[in-house]
Amino acid sequence: MFIKVFVNSKEGTLGNDPELRSIIQHASKNNPRYLFRVWSSNSGGDSTLNTTSAVTPHAFAPDYNTGHNSIFEMKSKWFIKNLIGHFRAQRIPSEFSSWTASPVFAIRVAFHFAERKRPNVHIAIVDTEKLKDTNMILSVLSTEPVFRSHSPDHVEMILDIEYEYLIHGVVDGEAYKAVALTALSECGLSDYFSGMRGDPAPYSNWIGRHRIFKLPGPAMPLSPTEAKSLLNIAGLYGKPSHIPFFVALVCCKLRPGLLTKPDLSEINKIIKLLGGHNQIPDWSASRGVFCNNIYYLKYDDGRQMQIIMRALNYYCLGRGARYRVLDDMELLVGGLSALGVDNSDSFERGRA
Predict the structure, then answer these.
(1) What is the 3-state secondary structure (H, E, C) of the chain?
(2) Nearest to residue 11, comparing CAs of 68, 93, 76?
(3) For residue range 278-327, what is the model confidence (pLDDT) as tens digits?
(4) pTM for the whole structure
(5) Which residue from 18, 21, 56, 163 has the fewest beta carbons nearer than 10 Å?
(6) Residues whose CB is less than 8 angstroms from the CB of residue 57 and which lie 6 or more positions away in sequence, other chains included
(7) Would you state the pLDDT for residue 265?
């Protein structure tokens, strides 16, 4: 039974609160291009909330139906209460779903769910720039100013879950894709990431202990054989989600050469594997790819994702694509060699 929460109808909304509206609008502009979510049939206590078609927060479920069309229609106090209830997993009609920018964290959570016999585990990816305009995205860390000014007792709680992102409303449509862990494992995910499996700790303790900030060394070059295996796994997501999911899988291991001069012939091999220049998404106008301070620097996997997406975009579409000029060429140069492709495998050197 959910907690019924009554809010004064005369209370001001976020849209009418200049301070909160400004914080939320600013925070919503600085999110990674792709986020990940793990769910099972009993996530949220209802198998209809998470499906391969949509992620539906409790407040938007038919049996409750109290969700707001826009986050700015929420009463200011209810917004804060809703966040606190969501973070604490209380029986409250949350208007948000939880996501992460770390593919390593998502995969580890998926394996953990499976090991604890959670049914029908899926890993989802969402393109944050193809969501509906009403799907406001907030990183938990970006809500810190809200809590400092309106609920200071909860600031420490916010800092402890800085890895989490929130999406308001129902997530569905072309931006969203989810694939069953069993299908991914049959294609090789479990074997490839076998080192992420087997942790017996309770879920509440496991999250804090096993967030991975710095990927363990040594840095591993990506061979064409390995790349083909990862592309086969990512292919289950279909177009266009397979390429960003492939990039995410590549970045789950530390790759060498982030600050060395790039070998464009090696990048060419990866592009050929993906189907050629025309198959690389045009990320030129993507804020989540090209703006700095989007990914938390302490997460190697997310940072590598941004670097590699920049590198692929620059190489395939040119620096001036859509008149977007990269303002961080040093990072870009490092990104082009982030894949660290090993020459010892089957492709001939220098051929596109």
Answers:
(1) CCCCCCCCCCCCEHHHCHHHHHHHHHHCCCCCCEEEEEECCCHHHCCCCECCCEECCHHHCCCCCCCCCCHHHCEHHHHHHHHHHHHCCCCCCCCEEEEECCHHHHHHHHHHHHHCCCCCCEEEEEECCCCCCCCCEEECHHHHHHHHHHCHHHHHHHHHCCCEEEEECCEEHHHEEEEEHHHHHHCCHHHHCHHHCCCCCCHHHHHHHHCCCCCCCCCCCCCHHHHHHHHHHHHHHCCCCHHHHHHHHHCCCCCCCCCCCCCHHHHHHHHHHCCCHHHCCCCCCCHHHHCCCCCCCCCHHHHHHHHHHHHHHHHHHCCCHHHCCCCCHHHHHHHHCCCCCCCCCCCCCCCC
(2) 76
(3) 889 999 889 999 888 888 878 889 988 988 888 888 888 775 554 343 44
(4) 0.86
(5) 18
(6) 49, 67, 93, 94, 95, 96, 97, 168, 169, 170
(7) 57
Tracing tokens 């069993």 back to the chain, one arrives at: 182
- Residues counted in the chain: 352
